[in-house]
């Protein structure tokens, strides 16, 4: 049996609805903040927004890599779970033939492959979180460096307004937007697994007539039957 019940009961549809709307709200908020910054500090804001524009496709690429790794991780996890189910169901045979060591190595090998994929996914998630904490500092630095190079004088009021606006857009663009990509990626993997399960061939029920208990004159008809049984001493 290629599909085991546990792997479909264990499907986790993450809270994609929480982050889904940030896929379109993030770019719109970035445009609105750009307009406000233009009114406040002029064309210098374009330098800071350019950093955000560079981060967004970078995070999209990371999201695609995360999707690929998530699919591979799910496949390896299914293999490991299926192997464990077979080990548990055949434990008596394994103990009888002393196959503990080969099956232990097989399970450990599958687990190592799974951990390797999980670690790579964690590294990608760590890069997204790192971009969240680093992006705001880089954006502010690039913005006001450009502002000074254009011959302007920095004032506390302009810095306060610019930092506030960048902080508002940073949460959406550098945290919620990549989180939405990750959640959608994992949800696509889960939906594809559910689809494969639902597209399996239907198993028809055996066409066996079972009479009611209260029926009288029950008949049994046997045609072309070959059977045998062993004698059992009691």
Automatic annotation (TrEMBL):
<dbReference type="InterPro" id="IPR050173">
    <property type="entry name" value="ABC_transporter_C-like"/>
</dbReference>
<dbReference type="InterPro" id="IPR011527">
    <property type="entry name" value="ABC1_TM_dom"/>
</dbReference>
<protein>
    <recommendedName>
        <fullName>ABC transmembrane type-1 domain-containing protein</fullName>
    </recommendedName>
</protein>
<feature type="transmembrane region" description="Helical">
    <location>
        <begin position="127"/>
        <end position="150"/>
    </location>
</feature>
<keyword id="KW-0472">Membrane</keyword>
<keyword id="KW-0812">Transmembrane</keyword>
<keyword id="KW-0547">Nucleotide-binding</keyword>
<dbReference type="InterPro" id="IPR036640">
    <property type="entry name" value="ABC1_TM_sf"/>
</dbReference>
<keyword id="KW-0067">ATP-binding</keyword>
<keyword id="KW-0813">Transport</keyword>
<dbReference type="GO" id="GO:0140359">
    <property type="term" value="F:ABC-type transporter activity"/>
</dbReference>
<feature type="transmembrane region" description="Helical">
    <location>
        <begin position="7"/>
        <end position="24"/>
    </location>
</feature>
<dbReference type="GO" id="GO:0005524">
    <property type="term" value="F:ATP binding"/>
</dbReference>
<feature type="domain" description="ABC transmembrane type-1">
    <location>
        <begin position="16"/>
        <end position="185"/>
    </location>
</feature>
<dbReference type="GO" id="GO:0005886">
    <property type="term" value="C:plasma membrane"/>
</dbReference>
<feature type="transmembrane region" description="Helical">
    <location>
        <begin position="156"/>
        <end position="177"/>
    </location>
</feature>
<keyword id="KW-1133">Transmembrane helix</keyword>
<feature type="transmembrane region" description="Helical">
    <location>
        <begin position="30"/>
        <end position="55"/>
    </location>
</feature>
<dbReference type="Pfam" id="PF00664">
    <property type="entry name" value="ABC_membrane"/>
</dbReference>
